[in-house]
Design goal:
The structure is a single chain. By secondary structure, the chain is α+β, with helices and mostly antiparallel strands. The chain folds into 3 domains: about 110 residues, no CATH class; about 270 residues, Ribonuclease H-like superfamily/Ribonuclease H (Nucleotidyltransferase, domain 5), CATH 3.30.420.10; about 70 residues, no CATH class. Helices cover about 35% and strands about 15% of the residues. Helix 5 crosses helix 15, helix 9 packs parallel to helix 12 and helix 10 runs parallel beside helix 15.
Amino acid sequence: MIRHWTSQTDYLDFLTAGIDALDPSQRKRLDGMTTTLEKMKLLDLDPVEELLLPCYSPIGRPAVHQMEILRSLILMPEMGYTGITAWVDALQHDELLDLLIGCRPYDLPPLGSYYDFITRLWLDPAPEKCGRKDLYSADRNCKPKGNKPGKGKKLEETRHPGICATMVENLQKGKDIPFNFEALLESILAEVGTKPSIEDGLIPDAAEGITLSGDGSCLHTHANPYGKKVCDCESKGIYDCNCPRHYSDIDAAWGWDSDLSVYYFGYNLYTETYHNSDLGVDLSLITRIINGRRHDSVSSIVCLHEFRKRCPDIRIANLCLDSASDNYPTYTLCKEWGINPFIDLNSQRGRPKSIPDAIKIDKDGTPICSGGLHMVYQGNDYKGHRVKWRCPVACGKADACPLSTPCSPSSYGRCVYTKPAWDIRLYTPVARGTDAWKKIYRNRTSCERMNNRILNDYRLHAMKIHGRKRASFFATVDGINIHLDARLKVRATAAAAG
């Protein structure tokens, strides 16, 4: 059980009293940590108490300093530390850091309490099997063979064909997605990060709706994919044995890094973000750490479902994804949930057979006129459930018609109509290739910036941690820090404006 949870009010009182008691050298040092101090003051962990209560037994020895441990782990990447052991050691010799996490130097939580706290937030009932005595086969992490997709290309989902269709079908029936071990971490991010950002006006209310963007990025692990031999075969002169081995990171797997055009061993960091263009901030709304084999098309559906479950008050108006999610189940789910999809097309999909042969189109579904020019979008005909396209010359979008004889005698020019019913993938509610479509799709770059902040600015890539559990925890912690950064930025801008 949790014996005592220090409230935000108690923490602020403790912080004020501690600052007043600092010696001149520590005060001078604190002056250079103004942003960090303001972040700790802004961080309100009171909503987490209710979430943590089910993680502790109502009987037995009481747990102490749970809020201080969480605040300490949130402060850790802010201070540039990449290892829990090194961070706990630094706390033992730094009274100022102890003050920021809310502890006295003589009453700090031990190292083991940090690891126990992280484990309690991971909802996998199965015990970890990564100890020295837990051995696995030598061919556990065989590197993929065959032709590489090439630079900028995505791996196809071949491990579980039809998995996206199955997931969407289950979601339409009201079923949940199982094995969500990150559920508690997602709830903490929503309570500590997302909801306070809504209150501060960084995220609009349900009436307006938001543009949600999703993308994955490679997270390389520092573990050896081939494991460590524990047998004595080498002493006998046998160097290519297939004896069981110890693996320090059993959750990691081989994946494809499309940027570097190489296979990598590790995880995939998938984030769904919101970009507030008026305030110039990017916010992490949900993060997922999955092994490198997982395809982004699966992650996008899972994250979309989990975000709607954690933040039902936020209406998703638009969803921006890359070509990895260019599949019919994703479009079907968006239609079911009233979301406008903005998904880059996969060039390997080809022309749908449902489109009449009489209409010539480009890869985006835009009709091509008899002269080979792209026709101009002229809006939706909602009564006729169709989209109107007009002659580019008549619209002033082209200098002259390449045909010797115009295809239409009318000065209005020829018109062509396409129907979304022909193909929900090509003919989305906002027509592809239009300025409106391009403007909204530009929001997807917020995911790339967010992944860069988590992996590099907050140094998740440099952390020598093993296991999906700890990587997921620190990805959540980084998301909370990014929300705090954005809220501080907006408050500082408002204060400067007067």
